[in-house]
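Protocol step 4 of 5: obtain the predicted structure for the target chain.
Materials: sequence only (see below). No template structures provided, no constraints applied. The aim of this step is simply to have a reference model before the mutagenesis design in step 5. Sequence pasted as it appears in the construct record:
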Amino acid sequence: MAGGWLARLGLRTREQRAWATYDWANSAFQCTIITAVFPIYFTSVASKGVPQATATEHFATATTIALTIIAVLSPILGAYADYAGAKKRLLAVFLAIGVVTTAAMYFIGEGEWKFAAVLFIIANIGVSGSFVFYDSLLPHIARADEMDRVSSAGYALGYLGGGLLLTVNLAWILKPAWFGIPDAGVASRLSFVSVAIWWLGFSIPMFRHVPEPAVRPSDLPAGVGPVGASFRQLGATVRELTRYREAFLMLIAFLIYNDGIGTIIRMAGPYGKEIGLPDDALITAFVMVQFVGIPFAFAFGALAGRIGAKPSVFIALMVYVIISIIGYFMDSAWEFWLLSFLVAMVQGGSQALSRSLFASMIPKQKSSEFFGFFGVFEKFAGVMGPALFAVTVRYTGSSRNAILSVIAFFVIGAILLWKVDVERGQQMARAAELGH
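Step 4 output (structure tokens):
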């Protein structure tokens, strides 16, 4: 019964369902650690005695460092995974890094913002590194005409999984006595441990049921192993990406508009705290995002089937412009709820369709290599926004101007996306797969 229901939603095969389960698994980290609980804990508890604006700056700086590191590593890791046939093994390594450091967040006490920042950096490297290999599996488990819906369904499951655990975490934090927990601080720390357990446990189906794609032995230079080949391949990959003009232009557009998306996701909590919104309003709004996002993620997958992935992303970017304007003027809890609802409408759809759109314009045999660069562009997108926040807070004492400046990312990204010829890009990828 579950298989038939999921098939109607876009997850037709066991491999597709197992692949999407990793979205369910890692979204606990995205919700509780990146978006909702940890940012508030970092600025309120770990940064106790530190001015609120300075705590926001520290959080933004930690985010920038983490994403810069993984952005540099991604193309090397992606090329190695293709040559060594090690997508799942490397995913497991980064999963382990993320799980261990997330569980270690339990030991963060009052005023220990430096310890908290180090763990946050390493855990982000773990989750972001795992995405390089996870995303690269998509072209291997879905046909070209299925990728939009499979990718969107994965995001929808992620909303549901992350939302369920975040609801439990919220109950612990708001009513700790109901669960025999001493106080909200301990409840927050226990929520970090719950994320580690959830992330690890629900990753198992993917490792069991998604096969490792074939290695690329014919591409290995004579006498060169996978490690040497991966470094040697970097320059060739850059040159080859430029041959796939539409995929490369899509990457540039994605780099720019995803910077705006990532900035809003990662900085919403610290920004809300900075303007004086109460913790319970912030966390409950984040829970609402998870559950409202589920039908909208599926809706964007269906919309892409009707009008195409590119026009659907355009719609999402228009909504993000409205979100930025609301964020600039926001000073009350109800406005934060409105902003959160709008984010829930477009967040999953815009990112899922960007992933599947890029996947449809690259040859399958080089999916990890190209998704390594997709990861670079995605992570550097995450670098610019938080870095802008850190600089703006330092020199102006407020984040409002940074929120408004995000609009430029959406407008410029949309202009570049408009220039992408999706059909031509897909034709070039299929020709490369056939050896033409």
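Step 4 remarks: The CA atoms of residues 138 and 147 lie 7 Å apart. The mean pLDDT is 82.
Proceed to step 5.
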